[in-house]
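Weekly sync, protein design subgroup
Attendees: M.S., D.O., the rotation student, P.L. (late)

Item 1: inverse folding check
M.S. brought a backbone from last month's batch and wanted to see whether the design step gives back something sensible before we order anything. D.O. pointed out we never logged the input encoding, so this time it goes straight into the notes. C-alpha cells as presented (273 positions):
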C-alpha cells in the first residue's frame, strides 16, 4: 500500500517536485491513500466531496499563454520548473474516482502546494481513497496528512541535483526530470487553447499519461492496476501570474512535523595525489 501512496505522490509532482526523485522522496506521514475496504466511508471525512464529473469547460487560453514553452532559467537565474511565474489550478477527478486537486505555485514552481482529495465512484465501491497535501519549497519537501494533522519533512535535493548536472546548461528542468524518470513524450495536443505535450510513464501503481503545458499538468489519465481503478483528472480553472501568499507554502498551524532519517548519499572516493 505504501508503494501506491508513493506512486501517487510522484504522479502529482512528476513535472515539478522533489517527490519524483526516488532517492530522496519522503514516505507519506501515514498511508493516506487507502482502500474503501480498509477505511469505511466516514461522513465528514475524506468522502465529504463533490461527486460532480469534470467537464471540458476550461476557459480558452489567452493568446499570450497558448504556446508550450519551458525556461532554462528563471529571470533571477535559478531553476525554472514551470514556464510561468505563479498560478492556481483547480482540477476534478472523473471515471472511477471523484474529487478535487488544487495546485498553487510561485517562483516558477520552486514553491508549490498541492491539495488532493478523492474517493472511489460510485459511493461505496471498493477502491483507493486519498486526502493529502504536499508542499515543496527550495529547502524542503512536506508530505502532509490533514486527517491526522501530521507532516513529514525532508530536505529538497532535486534542484541541487539538477543545477549540478551537465544537462542543466542546455536542458530545462521539466525535460531533465522526464529523462531521469524514463518518462516518454508520445505526442502533442491542444486543451482549450493550451498547447500541451503528452507524456507517458509506467509508475509504481500502474500506467499514467500526463498532458503538460509549460511543465504544468492540465490533464491526467491513469490506472491503479492492483485496485483495478481508472481515473481521469481535468483542469477546470486556471489563473496565471496571480499573487500566492507565502503562508500557502508552509504546513498549517498546529500540525506535528517530524523529520524521518534519510539514507546518506554515497561519497565519491577522493583521488590521491
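Designed sequence read out in the meeting:
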Amino acid at each position: 500500500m505504501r508503494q501506491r501512496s508513493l506512486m501517487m505522490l510522484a504522479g502529482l509532482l512528476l513535472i515539478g517536485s522533489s517527490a519524483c526523485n526516488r532517492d530522496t522522496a519522503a514516505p507519506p506521514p501515514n498511508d493516506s491513500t487507502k482502500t474503501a475496504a480498509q477505511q469505511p466511508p466516514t461522513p465528514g471525512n475524506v468522502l465529504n466531496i463533490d461527486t460532480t464529473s469534470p467537464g471540458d469547460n476550461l476557459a480558452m487560453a489567452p493568446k499570450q499563454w497558448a504556446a508550450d514553452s519551458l525556461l532554462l532559467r528563471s529571470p533571477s537565474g535559478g531553476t525554472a520548473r514551470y514556464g510561468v511565474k505563479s498560478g492556481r489550478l483547480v482540477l476534478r477527478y472523473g471515471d472511477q474516482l471523484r474529487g478535487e486537486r488544487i495546485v498553487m505555485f510561485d517562483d516558477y514552481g520552486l514553491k508549490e502546494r498541492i491539495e488532493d482529495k478523492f474517493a472511489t465512484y460510485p459511493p461505496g465501491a471498493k477502491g483507493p481513497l486519498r486526502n493529502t497535501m504536499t508542499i515543496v519549497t527550495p529547502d524542503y519537501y512536506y508530505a502532509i496528512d490533514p486527517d491526522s494533522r501530521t507532516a513529514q519533512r525532508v530536505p529538497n535535493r532535486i534542484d541541487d541535483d539538477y543545477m549540478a548536472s551537465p544537462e542543466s546548461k542546455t536542458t530545462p528542468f521539466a525535460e531533465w526530470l522526464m529523462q531521469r524518470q524514463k518518462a516518454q513524450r508520445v505526442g502533442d495536443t491542444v486543451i482549450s487553447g493550451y498547447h500541451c505535450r503528452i507524456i507517458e510513464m509506467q509508475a509504481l501503481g500502474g500506467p499514467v499519461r500526463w498532458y503538460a503545458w509549460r511543465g504544468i499538468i492540465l490533464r491526467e489519465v491513469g490506472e491503479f492496476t492492483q485496485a483495478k481503478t481508472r481515473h481521469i483528472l481535468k483542469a477546470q480553472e486556471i489563473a496565471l501570474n496571480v499573487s500566492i501568499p507565502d503562508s500557502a507554502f508552509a504546513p498549517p498551524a498546529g500540525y506535528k512535523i517530524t523529520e524521518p532519517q534519510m539514507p546518506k548519499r554515497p561519497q565519491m572516493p577522493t583521488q590521491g595525489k
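Discussion: The helical segments are 2-13, 158-164, 173-180. Confidence is low (pLDDT under 50) at residues 1-46, 268-273.
Action: P.L. to compare against the previous round before Friday.
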